[in-house]
Amino acid sequence: MQYGMVIDLKKCMGCQTCSTACKLANNLPAGTWWNRVLTVGGEQIDTARGSYPNAEIHHLPVACQHCANPACVKVCPVGATFKDKDTGIVRQDYDKCIGCRMCMSACPYTGVRSFNWEEPKFAVGFSIGEEESPAHQKHTVEKCTLCVGRIAKGQKPKCVEACAGRARFFGDFDDPDSEVSKLVRDRESMQLLPEMGTNPSVHYLV
Description:
Helix content is 18%, strand content 19%. It is α+β, with helices and mostly antiparallel strands. The protein has one domain: Alpha-Beta Plaits. β4 and β5 (90-92) form a beta hairpin. It is globular and about 50 Å long. The mean pLDDT is 94.
């Protein structure tokens, strides 16, 4: 089994709902985002490149790519970064993490991981989010979990459920009859940095 995601770039409007839903569902610390929507255009968010009538802007949602061949897993000296054999999801064990950040260095997808240098701080004084959201710890690396707790209950990742443009799809790439398998088979798609040999489990429809 290899769970992953398909994101339709023609439907993504850069609304950041996926980012916000992820942050709330996982009770992420202040300043931490597991899910970002990058602007491909001007230097600032939601600004175009060029000038009218030839201005151009696109949006690119980026999070952990949950690679089939993850570089991060190979370099972790204590097994804190691991690939779940049942789901294919790349996960973090905070209790094992020694804060060496080798996984961050090995990952070719800049910014998909964050490191808690200090005790995590939150905008409100009480926990929010899903019951299964992880307890965040000092001196540990964090990243998208693909909402593994929701998946275990038969639910979709929060970003998929919340997507206002219905641009996100979740499923098993090892199942040829799954929605995600059919989408990448029927539509032109791309993966980020395929030349790195990581075989990301996030595909973008273009």
